[in-house]
Automatic annotation (TrEMBL):
The protein's name in its UniProt record: DNA topoisomerase 1
Swiss-Prot/TrEMBL site (Interaction with DNA) positions: H33, R142, D146, Y151, W158, R315, R498
Active site location: Y313 (o-(5'-phospho-dna)-tyrosine intermediate)
CDD domains linked to this entry: TOP1Ac (cd00186), TOPRIM_TopoIA_TopoI (cd03363)
Keywords of this entry: DNA-binding, Isomerase, Magnesium, Metal-binding, Topoisomerase
Cross-referenced Pfam families: Topoisom_bac, Toprim
Gene designation per UniProt: topA
Protein family membership: Belongs to the type IA topoisomerase family.
Reaction equations catalysed: ATP-independent breakage of single-stranded DNA, followed by passage and rejoining
GO biological process, one term: DNA topological change
Length: 740
């Protein structure tokens, strides 16, 4: 008979942990957050602030959470001891507190592990601790902050009447970064310039450096940074920029007129240190640039690897590795690559805000054969695992050794420069190849005369700053302190979901809607858009988690001193309807046009993307005609207007709604089927049959939609109580607030 209950977050861990712990344990999952702030009270915030105190009213997230709570309560009654093993971060500690409160646990044991292996789990259970009230306070504060900003700020953008849905504490600051870059691109004016070069018969090309009588240039700093957000595509070498074709031509003529001689040769051995192992941010960056994963996909795949016991916990900002793993990696190198074993164990420095109690992301067993894993894992999981393995091993290798060469030549009064590089020892780059290709220069001596083969110039043009790729945006968010490891991926996903940004050619571009929302918020809530302002809020949450501040005091003070006055001022900002109309037109013009013409105005119809139709788009008139929508008919091989079920006689009585036997989750009255047309398609939903239910705020979320698995509601889950709502499994948190 089991005597102990272990409660984890994800159901994906249950099987693995049950195998590790054996028959004496029951393992159950909370499926992420089981409670959320209610929608009661002023502005539906679900919490009240009185002086320096905050009172929160938490309710189950949805019907599925209610069922989970009942199942957990039943499990608690079967055992003598309950152990909470939610994830090892602020969010996990908060979920553990919610479980304690909901299940009525007096002094539950809290255990933390960063990998699901027998040794790690058993060691954690052998050393339980109490719940960390500081981490819980930071989690509750973040919860209240996000809902406060989302629920109070979002109505400001609703007034734009352009489809804008939300304002968010992290979301809006991130959108501002994307919009700022877009405006830089819009005002950018390209300039022509020329790169001047000479080719020598000795077998190399040199570029214009300057003139001998000008002050000596400051030596170029050779930065050896590891940028995970970009691929290995180094810029092609070019000369000091020449701003007119006439000057470029003059330099070429001078190069042809005078003899050439080497005046300086320099060669040095440079050591490039191995990169640190992955954090959440760098994992998302590398997976984006190398595997083309979106940040949210990276985290979903990593979650599966973690639950399978293959990698350590994937939400971390630390680059620290356990001594056991370092010893294991060293042993692997000694057996398989002895030349790459460093004299000392490599140490990497984490950021100031990193939680050093955590580890970097690494494989749990460096000796596990990849051949075996390739057969067991789906392709995406295997590729991400291999990338994590290579990065962790690379971090424990010797530095790479590069022979760098600099040659400066002179013709008349003009200086020319060539740079070369040869890798003499790959070191870590054998596993993490991020070195530029070799550029070999011939062996030459100072004072040696050279034979000019050719001279010329290439016209070029300055380029606007590039749009951010998803990896680059995550990197920028981390550098500016916007959000934390657990929020990078959800923030980028929310911006795309809200139609504030879209992915074009692997880069994030703000939509007309996103630009307008950002422009309005610059007038309404300018501080909320500034990275420094948002970063200070993150720092305040970190201080709360370290016990340096009271979360209730911080929240009430922030609201009273900043947010209330800021909202009052924001409400005085005038909404310009003409801008809204202009934006809507811009959005419509982006649709691809069809050869099929509108039957009324004869203009070409627009192709409206839709995943719900077989052809992946339908046709619609965007030239002013109302309700002109055509769908492809496979039967007739032509575009046709949708067939409606309505009677042609407008005076004919409307068909009565069909009442079902399902009870309304709010008032228990029967639900009724309601038919309607959306995007030219016939739809059916369930709603409460009560006559006044549409006026009642409590009923606003009573809406069930038909899916492949039956009737489903975003608020209440699956209608069939016998079937758990699998659509929500694996979600850490599902916010109902506009902040998303």
């Amino acid at each position: 008979m089991p005597k102990r209950l272990l409660v984890v977050e994800s159901p994906g861990k249950v099987k693995k942990l049950s195998q590790i712990l054996g028959a004496d344990w029951i393992v159950r999952a909370s499926c992420g957050h089981i409670r959320e702030l209610s929608n009661d009270g002023d502005d539906s915030l679900g919490f009240t602030m009185d002086g320096n105190s905050v009172r929160c009213n938490y309710v189950p997230r949805d019907q599925r959470a209610k069922e989970t709570i009942q199942q957990l309560k039943a499990a608690v009654r079967q055992v003598d001891e309950v152990v909470l093993a939610t994830d090892p971060d602020r969010e996990g500690e908060t979920i553990a507190w919610h479980l304690k409160e909901t299940l009525g646990l007096r002094e539950p044991k809290r255990v933390v592990y960063t990998e699901i292996t027998a040794s790690a789990v058993k060691a954690a259970i052998a050393h339980p601790r109490k719940l960390d009230t500081n981490l819980i306070g930071a989690g509750l504060c973040r919860d209240c902050l996000d809902k406060l900003v989302g629920y109070k700020g979002s109505p400001l953008v609703w007034a734009l009447n352009n489809g804008a849905k939300s304002v968010g504490r992290v979301q809006s600051a991130t959108l501002h970064l994307i919009c700022q870059r877009e405006r830089e691109i819009q005002v950018f004016v390209p300039q022509d310039y020329w790169s001047v070069w000479v080719d020598y018969q000795e077998g190399f090309r040199a570029f214009y450096k300057g003139t001998a009588n000008t002050p000596t240039d400051t030596p170029e700093a050779e930065t050896e940074t590891h940028d995970d957000a970009v691929g290995n595509n180094p810029d092609k070498p070019e000369s000091k920029r020449v701003l007119s074709e006439a000057e470029a031509t003059r330099l070429v003529e001078e190069a042809k007129r005078h003899s050439h001689q080497i005046i300086h040769v320099e060669g040095k051995l440079v050591y490039r240190q191995p990169p640190p192992p992955f954090t959440t941010s760098t994992l998302q960056q590398a997976a984006g640039s190398k595997l083309k994963f979106a940040p949210d996909k990276t985290m979903q795949v990593a979650q599966k690897l973690y639950e399978a016991g293959l990698i350590t916990y994937m939400r971390t900002d630390s680059v620290m590795l356990s001594p056991d793993f370092c010893a294991s990696a060293r042993k692997w190198l000694e057996q398989n690559d002895p030349q790459n074993v460093p004299q000392q164990v490599a140490k990497h420095r984490s950021s100031k805000t990193a939680q050093e109690a955590h580890e970097a992301i690494r494989p749990t067993d460096v000796f596990r054969p990849s051949v075996q894993l390739r057969a067991e894992l789906p392709e995406d999981e295997f590729n991400l695992y291999v990338m994590i393995w290579k990065r962790a091993v690379a971090s424990q290798c010797r530095p790479a050794q590069l022979r760098k060469t600099l040659i400066i030549t002179k013709s008349g009064n003009i200086l020319w420069q060539a740079r070369g590089q040869v890798v003499e020892f790959y070191g870590y780059a054998k596993y993490w190849p991020n070195l530029s290709k070799d550029a070999v220069l011939p062996l030459l001596q100072q004072g040696q005369a050279l034979t000019l083969e050719n001279a010329g110039h290439d016209q070029k043009q300055t380029q606007p700053p590039p749009r951010y790729s998803e990896p680059k945006l995550v990197q920028l968010m981390e550098r500016k302190g916007i959000g934390r490891p657990s929020t990078y991926a959800p923030t980028v996903a929310t911006l795309k979901k809200r139609n504030y940004v879209e992915l074009k050619k692997d880069n994030l571009q703000p939509t007309a809607l996103g630009l307008e929302v950002d422009e309005f918020l610059q007038k309404a809530l300018p501080d909320l858009l500034e990275a420094e302002f948002t970063a200070k809020m993150e720092d305040a949450l970190d201080a709360i988690s370290e016990g340096k501040n009271s979360w209730q005091h911080y929240l009430t003070t922030w609201n009273q001193n900043y947010f209330v006055p800021a909202l009052s001022k924001a409400k005085t900002v005038v909404v310009n309807p003409s801008t809204t109309a202009k934006t809507n037109n811009l959005v419509e013009r982006k649709y691809e046009t069809s050869k099929t013409r509108c039957p009324d105005c004869k203009n070409c119809l627009a192709k409206i993307p839709s995943s719900k139709v077989k052809k992946k788009y339908f046709l619609k008139c965007v030239s002013g005609c109302e309700n002109i929508v055509l769908f492809w008919s496979d039967f007739h091989k032509t575009w046709e207007a949708p067939k409606t079920k309505t009677s042609p006689d407008e005076n004919a009585p409307k068909p009565s709604t069909k009442v079902t036997s399902y009870p309304c989750p709010v008032c228990k009255k029967p639900l009724e089927e309601y038919s309607y047309i959306k995007d030219g398609q016939n739809k059916t939903m369930l709603r409460c049959s009560g006559q006044e239910s549409w006026k009642d705020k409590k009923h606003k979320d009573v809406a069930y939609f038909h899916t492949a698995k039956g009737w489903w509601s975003p608020k209440f889950g699956n209608l069939d109580l016998g079937k758990p709502d699998s659509t929500n499994q694996g979600n850490r948190k599902k916010m109902v607030s506009p902040n998303g």
